[in-house]
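sorry for the late reply, my laptop died twice this morning and i had to redo everyting from scratch. anyway the thing you sent over, i finally got around to it. pasting the sequence first so we're on the same page, its 138 residues, then the predicted structure underneath. double check i copied it right bc i was rushing
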Amino acid sequence: MAIRRRPRLVSQINVVPYIDVMLVLLVIFMVTAPMITPGIVNLPSVGNVDSPPAEPIEVQIAANGSISVIDHDISGHARPVSRAELAEVIRAKQENKPQQAVIITADKEIKYDLVLKTMDMLIRNRVENVGLLALPSS
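ok and here's the structure:
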């Protein structure tokens, strides 16, 4: 007597129907994509654009104690001024640009007391945005 064997079950998934569905969807999307009208986008308008910050006014104190003012926005050349007229010159330059910074640079041989007195005099005369500039040691 011969034993009959059962037919083996196929344990693989048939993906052909899935591929057919994907191809049909691809064709549908390709046909309908050109028919879609793009939406209208309301872009915001640009307001006043802030101008770049002004170059700082540089107050140079030389080794002999003389003071020069350099305005990089106008000429970039050093203009010698006396200690008495320094605050007036700086305030006149800051009239048009009140946020323009004032940087004090001093020779390394000058006493720091003179730099502080100059800075204090500018602050007392209502000159705003006063700072110090120092070169890093090399």
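The longest strand covers residues 57-61.
thats about all i looked at so far, will dig more tmrw
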